[in-house]
Amino acid sequence: MELTFEKDYPFIIYRYRIPSELKALHLHNCFEIGLIENGAGAFHVDRKSYQFRAGDIFVISRLEAHRARTNGGASDALFIYVSDTFLENVVSFTGERTIYGLFSLAGIANQYRDEGDASLIRGVFTAHTADHRPLVRSMMAELLVRIAGRYRRVIQSARGTDDFGDSLLAVYEHINRNFSHGIDADELAAIAGQSPSHFRRLFKRYAGTSPRDYITARRLKNAYLLIHERGMKAAEAARESGFQSYALFHRLFTREYKMPPVAVKRSGKKGKTTEEKQRE
Higher confidence at residue 95 or residue 73? Predict the structure, then answer.
């Protein structure tokens, strides 16, 4: 779902009661941080599955489909959505360019435990509840730097230390808004201010995949959510997600999700998707 942030407040912060049954997969157009307060259960991120308990922290990059359920008892979590604008500001202020790597956590574990980070998340929630927004900003900047530090070695070894990260936000945003239309690497290279060949090399270093494969994965995720959450027919979901050939869509979908589109279990809910409801 595409989240909308307040103009002067780059966060969405709330407490969430994790359901005991699996809900539809969903994804966001921003970075997400979650702290499990109590209970135990399973957290699914794309095809990865984690068992969680109180004190676990989850970091979810933009466009990673995810969902969670408990083992039957009550379980609450604190979630923080962070706008791209704030991430850019933290990079500019701190020089911690590794933060750009958090946009695409391909191959990196989404779950970890750290009492210092957990304490910061609780502090952010308390300050947010009291509407102490300057304190929230300060604590969030510290939290992001700490998280980037945790993943620094993996991110830098995979992506290098050049300045390409500065262009990632604009590229990701363009893909997110236009994936259902024709997008090519030359168009993205122009946005990033790079030659097409150099852009392809840098994008793969940062995102862990080629621009073409990244766009295809985004389209497949959208189609999956349309089928599962809205109950849309596979052929229509393919068209809505930017696939011109159903045969190609069927082959790629089956390879990605290990089942054909018609085998996707529908949620039974028709009408508006979660994304559409969020926009209202």
Answer: 73
